[in-house]
Amino acid sequence: MLRIQRRPGKVRLDGTDRFLRGFTYVVFSIFAILCIIPFWLIIASSFSTEAAIRRSGFTLWPADFSLYSYQLISMSPDQLIGSYIVTVAMTMLGTTVGLFFISMTGYALQRKDFPYRNGISFYIYFTSLFSAGLVPFYYLIVKVYGLKDSYWAVLLPLLMTPWLIILMKNYVKAIPHEITESGKIDGAGDFRIFWSLILPSMTPALATIGLFLALSYWNEWYYSSLFLGSQVRYRPLQYQLYNVINKVASIKNSLAASNIVLNDLPSETLKMATATLATGPIILLYPFVQRYFVAGLTVGAVKG
Amino acid sequence: MLQKRALMNDTRLLVPTGSGYSLRKSLRQNRTLILMCIPAIVFFFLFCYLPMPGAYIAFTKFNYNKGIFGSPFVGWKNFAFLFTSGQLTLLLRNTVLYNIAFILLGNFIPLLCAILLNEIQASWFRKVTQSIMFLPYFISAVLVSLLVYNMINYDYGFISNIVRQFGGAMPKYYSQPGAWPFIIVLVYLWQNVGYGTVIYFAAITNIDTSMIEAAKVDGANGFQRIRYIILPCLKSTLVILLLFAMGNIVKGNFGLFYNLVGGNSLLFGTTDIIETYVYRALMNNFNFSQGSAVGLFQSVVGFVIVLVANGIVKRIEPDYSLF
């Protein structure tokens, strides 16, 4: 990486510079705090008692520390565990398959000696310009494909987007064409060239696009809310969270099914505990993966 | 350009003028590359192209049991109803106004942040704040709604608490439609400013540093460097991004609106956008015809606007046009 190091001190700072710098530190520190507080509030209130919340609302520090909501969840854990398994499985399968298809297409579409590349590019790109709308899509999935209440209805539509394919195409373009040429001279087929020469040299792109895909699967609730009805026992995590938030009654039912009857359900702390458990892993993973996003977006933005 | 070339390819596919042999040869030669595109081609055919004929629902009095093409044809009746009832105008107004706010604030604030961030020399501070500001982008709309509820809920909300401690009266936001445009725009910014900052910051680091250095040596202060070097360098990026964003001006952010407002019909006047209306028409009211009509209207208007925006971009900066 060629980057000219800018050293402070070489050039004298005047008053406006100092003001600008101080202002920036203050603004960004406040903004960073505003980004963190909401998350902290959720975690803090999940460890609070329901009574404390009723008395003094959500606070930065739990007034009365309690693990009650977590105990309640652990009494009938199969719902949440099931949701976890469904989400993790879908994320892994969808990301792997989607990444494979996207990178394969992206490679083929940037090959300058591929005569159909513009036709196919336009065919893919056009879908982001015009669509039939939600209703015909819903009808097709439910009535024609018969995928109501099937996890496939959630897994398949998220596999690829025109934008991710274009992003991938731009990444692969940066790999010198000579690699493909040398593969050809050695007599390797196009797929072989892609698989053993191109793929290994594009790990950063795979990481970035893979993360976008994984995130869209992990945060999935939209297609679930469209296609997964009440017959589906294990909902994907975020949709399960949606249900807990909007229908606390659904937890009551699931507890009642396990022969636990509560007169006064701690609905607020239960919401917060479910949110903490459903989002925890992504927040814990975040510091390790965010640099791929930053790096990936930077490349994508520069290439336009 | 893409379109033109695509057309050329198509005609070659359809009319092999006396060279059927060479077409077959070309297909055989590119067999592997074509096969590599097959999953994507099939995918977009199944999930994007095949639903398109279904837009016919918008012109029928839809009956689920009779299917799309068995339902009675009613012409423009669904559209006429939506127009005369004022529903479509309201939805369009809300969707477009929210998007204008999102586009303008969602580009200018990140631009400002990126410029300020660039003034800071301590790279650890830059990295840490960028990482933290990016965090809200990672979470689902479902969780965002819970965060907002946590903050402004009348009974227990964090902000409500603080307001009360200082003796103020907290408004009951969940029954006040007038407050929601501000809340929704703020939440949108909270979630997206970090993302935009990263993109603009990348564009700034792309500027030739020697220009900035030279300005410094010439004694230009921070404001002058921003005004005369950084902003002019970013102008084309900004214009292009804004124009493309304008192309999506009738597309709403469903997740944000649906999770924040949900079925709270008290707030619909200021918060109902095309997407939420279509979703409810489909999932709650089972009114396929009207949902479909609104959706088709949105697609057609959006398509026309994209063509116009692209035409403008092509005039300003031909290299950046989409097709």
Describe the structure in brief.
The complex is a heterodimer of chains A (304) and B (323). By secondary structure, chain A is an all-alpha fold.
Task: Explain what the structure shows.
The complex is a heterodimer of chains A (304) and B (323). By secondary structure, chain A is mostly helical. Chain A contains 15 helices and no strands. Chain A folds into 2 domains: 15-70, no CATH class; 77-246, MetI-like (MetI-like fold). Chain A starts with 14 loop residues before the first helix and ends with a helix. Chain B folds into 2 domains: 1-44, no CATH class; 88-320, MetI-like (MetI-like fold, Orthogonal Bundle). In chain B, helix 5 packs antiparallel against helix 11 and helix 14 (274-283) runs antiparallel to helix 15 (288-316). At the A-B interface, helix 1, helix 2, helix 4, helix 5 and helix 6 of A face helix 1, helix 3, helix 5, helix 6 and helix 7 of B.
Low-confidence spans of chain B = 1-17
CATH class type of the largest domain in chain B? Mainly Alpha
Classification by helices and strands of chain A: mainly alpha
Distance between the termini of chain B: 5 Å
Helix/strand structural class of chain B? mainly alpha
CATH architecture of the largest domain in chain B: Orthogonal Bundle
Kindly state the percentage of residues in helix of chain B: over 70%
Main beta sheet of chain B, described?
A: none
Give the tally of β-strands of chain A: 0
Radius of gyration of chain A: 25 Å
